[in-house]
């Protein structure tokens, strides 16, 4: 008899074969017509087309796939869509770099055409990576947020929220990136701690002529100083409240005010209010109706209000004014302090606060309802809800959704040049690009003017991606209610404050509820050195490199085993190698099994009577039964690490090390019970393993089981149910396993090769003697021993660890 499973596990050939087969047979497509099975819908986060999938993205994707594959086997009609979150500044920057020309040197249409072209190219690359990971995506659902069809949906959502009064346009201080030259949302600010000089600057009190020293990290904002604040209980300064301070160099008088929120322990306890240094300035400006003096422009350059600093970049202006102050003896001292600086998450430039006319979502007004909806979501792990809550409570301002960029969804609004009316385009005229398309209005409905101008700002890309769950369900057209809210929203903890927050916020605004029921949160993948993975650290690993060396199944199994759900994962080649060795072990076991299980009919385990099965068969069925119960429970909880550990432990140690070794002699003698048991156990192991290693599972299934079971793929077979076994016989089987293991160690310690025959094994079993006698054949067959003697009296040289009342001796 020849084994049907080839000797070498050629993962490259196996994986690409099954990826092609799954796609061409369409077995992972969501069946819209099927109303018999329950649905399970996944709101797959559409990745940003960077052109390359790194192992961090891949972790998120394989987690999603574990769930999709498991749910499919549990009988769900699984909806696993795939989109691309195309828009964004990084694309604009890369197009500029690749072409060697600035955005301003292109016609906007030409620049946008290039952005689209490059995006398509990068998507093509990443699509290959996703397929190579063996993800069971329904590719017939693929969409791109830069497509007109998606624009229509994003713009539609804008119009609906505008009509509900949840979107408005106003002038308000916004966070501004001078490098990207656009407004950005609070979620896009990254706070970094940095050591900065703290300047102690001399002001004068006008009424008394005395010096008033103020410590600041931003002396270049002196031209924007509009007030000086002290704490009302600060005895050093109470007498000054109500008087005036004179701003040095600029000789402007500003009020000295007492305010509870001043920290008397920072610097000298006196703080200057500038429009705008930070968010506190915005608050104080409003509270005391202070004037607004802007001295920094959109490019991060000082303007005409800055006097001698005009034309200087912020950093240079800071040095320059420090020199001026020092020369005029207005600088008392400079200290170095550790402080946090808000920076743009895309380009890491320190951000400014500028008052700008922008579009906003009324997110503050919706905060309460967002928190309420977030509490109804099942968070995995559950502490992740706290992160969302903390974030929502930390937000100070409404969400600014307009951006001063090109490659994004246009805002569907025109303005009347005469009366200034905002003309929002009606739903039936979408999609529209007001930057290029003529207005869909004859005249201004307010004043009749025909002088209309299209909005040139575009939307934050989160406006595109915060409606994915609804769009996946078909919204706003033929909405499939079975798919909404999505059953699962899977993402990394780094985007809870964006992805999860914006999805819930928009869900509340548009539908009055969260767009998802469960949030599955994954950790980050760190480099082998434990640091976050970054190209600049030299610890970056592209998923393609791993797939090339080990294949998708090894990577997927490693990802499951590497850390608990939600925890960070440290990348490890050793870990991937371990997963690979396990898969080779399974392959070799299957190869052995295929020698016996592919010729002739293997009886179903149900066809055999309990007496036909040996105790060791009951034992392995009992162990399998427990494993299925555990793996099922863990997968229900999305505890992939525990599920995979259980599966590896069972397969490697119980099935391969013990059971297979113990039945080899029975297999070669044509033992029906051994055939049936091995068939059942191996098939059920492969079924469970197909969640993590689908290619290997399907390959072995097709070689040994397919013609008997008939499922087109093991990955769409019904999830295994724990097999029936006899508890009492199973515990006798456990005794056999322990005796075999100890006798083997005895042979090993006596330096006798396992293949060499020995004369006899003496077992001193006390009152277990009758049980042990039943096992004599298994012991003889497995251990190559001529005679087994079971004694009720006396003791042997070695104790059996699991049954210390039993001991053995070898007779060579
Ligand atoms: Zn920036
Ligand atoms: Zn008008």
TrEMBL record:
Keywords noted in UniProt: Aminoacyl-tRNA synthetase, ATP-binding, Cytoplasm, Ligase, Nucleotide-binding, Protein biosynthesis
Domain called Methionyl/Valyl/Leucyl/Isoleucyl-tRNA synthetase anticodon-binding: residue spans: 617-759
Catalytic activity: tRNA(Val) + L-valine + ATP = L-valyl-tRNA(Val) + AMP + diphosphate
'HIGH' region (motif): residue ranges: 47-57
Any Gene Ontology CC annotation: cytosol
Leading EC class: ligase
GO biological process, one term: valyl-tRNA aminoacylation
Family recorded in the similarity comment: Belongs to the class-I aminoacyl-tRNA synthetase family. ValS type 2 subfamily.
Protein name per the record: Valine--tRNA ligase
Organism: Thermofilum pendens
């Amino acid at each position: 008899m020849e084994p049907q499973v080839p000797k070498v596990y050629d993962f490259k050939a196996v994986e690409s074969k099954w990826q092609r087969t799954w796609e061409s047979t369409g077995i992972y497509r969501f069946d819209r017509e099927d109303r018999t099975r329950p649905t399970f819908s996944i709101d797959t986060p559409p990745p940003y087309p960077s052109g390359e999938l790194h192992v961090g993205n891949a972790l998120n994707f394989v987690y999603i796939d574990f769930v999709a594959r498991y749910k499919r086997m549990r009988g769900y009609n699984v909806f696993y869509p795939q989109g691309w979150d195309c828009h964004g500044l990084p694309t604009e920057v890369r197009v500029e770099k690749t072409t060697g020309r600035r955005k301003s040197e292109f016609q906007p249409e030409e620049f946008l055409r290039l952005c689209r072209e490059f995006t398509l190219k990068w998507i093509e690359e990443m699509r290959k990576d996703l397929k190579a990971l063996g993800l069971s995506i329904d590719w017939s659902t693929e969409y791109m947020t830069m497509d007109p069809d998606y624009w229509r949906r994003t713009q539609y959502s804008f119009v609906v929220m505008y009509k509900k009064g949840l979107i408005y346009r106003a002038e308000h201080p916004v966070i501004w990136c001078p490098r990207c030259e656009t407004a950005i949302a609070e979620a896009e600010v990254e706070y970094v701690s940095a050591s900065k000089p703290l300047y102690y600057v001399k002001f004068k009190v006008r009424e008394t002529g005395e010096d008033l020293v103020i410590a600041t990290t931003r002396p270049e904002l002196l031209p924007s100083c509009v007030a000086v604040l002290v704490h009302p209980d600060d005895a050093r300064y109470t007498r000054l409240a109500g008087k005036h301070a004179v701003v040095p160099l600029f000789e402007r008088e500003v009020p000295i005010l007492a305010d509870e929120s001043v920290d008397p322990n920072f610097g000298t306890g006196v703080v200057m209010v500038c429009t705008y240094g930070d968010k506190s300035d915005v608050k104080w400006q409003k509270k005391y109706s202070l004037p607004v003096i802007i001295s920094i422009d959109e490019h991060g350059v000082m303007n005409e209000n800055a006097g001698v600093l005009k034309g200087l970049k912020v950093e240079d202006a800071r040095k320059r004014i420090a020199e001026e102050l020092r020369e005029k003896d207005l600088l008392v001292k400079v200290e170095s302090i550790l402080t946090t600086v808000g920076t743009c998450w895309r380009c890491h430039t320190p951000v400014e606060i500028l008052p700008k006319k922008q579009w906003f979502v009324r997110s503050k007004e919706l905060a309460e309802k967002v928190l309420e909806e977030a509490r109804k979501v099942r968070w995995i792990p559950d502490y992740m809800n706290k992160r969302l809550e903390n974030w929502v409570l930390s937000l100070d301002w409404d969400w600014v959704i307009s951006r001063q960029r090109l490659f994004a969804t246009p805002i569907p609004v025109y303005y009347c040049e005469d009366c200034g009316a905002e003309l929002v385009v009606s739903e039936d005229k979408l999609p529209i690009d007001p930057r290029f398309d003529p207005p869909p209005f004859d005249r201004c409905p307010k004043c009749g003017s025909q002088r209309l101008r299209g909005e040139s700002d575009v939307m934050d890309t989160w406006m595109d991606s915060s409606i994915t769950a609804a769009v996946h369900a078909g919204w706003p057209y033929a909405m499939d209610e079975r798919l909404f809210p999505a059953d699962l929203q899977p993402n990394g903890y780094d985007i809870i404050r964006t992805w999860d927050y914006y999805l819930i916020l928009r869900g509340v605004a548009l539908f009055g509820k969260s767009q998802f029921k469960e949030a599955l949160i994954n950790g980050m993948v760190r480099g082998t050195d434990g640091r976050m993975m970054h190209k600049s650290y030299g610890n970056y690993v592209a998923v393609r490199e791993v797939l090339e060396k080990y294949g998708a199944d090894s990577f997927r199994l490693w990802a499951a085993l590497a850390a608990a759900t939600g925890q960070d994962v440290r990348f490890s080649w050793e870990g991937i190698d371990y997963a690979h060795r396990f898969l080779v072990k399974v392959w070799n076991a299957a190869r052995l099994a295929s020698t016996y299980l592919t010729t002739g009919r293997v009886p179903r385990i149900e066809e055999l009577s309990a007496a036909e099965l040996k105790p060791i068969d009951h034992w392995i069925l009992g162990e399998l039964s427990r494993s299925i119960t555990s793996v099922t429970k863990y997968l229900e909880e999305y505890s992939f690490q525990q599920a995979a550990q259980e599966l590896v432990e069972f397969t490697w140690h119980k099935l391969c090390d013990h059971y297979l070794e113990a039945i080899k002699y029975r297999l070669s003698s044509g033992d029906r019970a051994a055939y049936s048991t091995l068939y059942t156990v191996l098939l059920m192991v492969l079924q469970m393993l197909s969640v993590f290693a689908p290619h290997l599972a399907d390959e072995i299934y097709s070689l040994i089981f397919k013609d008997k079971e008939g499922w087109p793929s093991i990955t769409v077979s019904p999830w295994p149910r724990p097999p029936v076994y006899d508890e009492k016989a199973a515990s006798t089987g456990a005794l056999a396993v322990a005796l075999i293991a100890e006798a083997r160690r005895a042979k090993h310690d006596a330096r006798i090769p396992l293949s060499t025959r020995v004369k006899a094994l003496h077992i001193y079993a006390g009152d277990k003697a009758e049980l042990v006698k039943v096992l004599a054949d298994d012991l003889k067959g497995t251990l190559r021993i001529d005679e087994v003697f079971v004694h009720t009296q006396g003791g042997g040289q070695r104790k059996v660890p699991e049954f210390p009342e039993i001991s053995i001796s070898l007779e060579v």
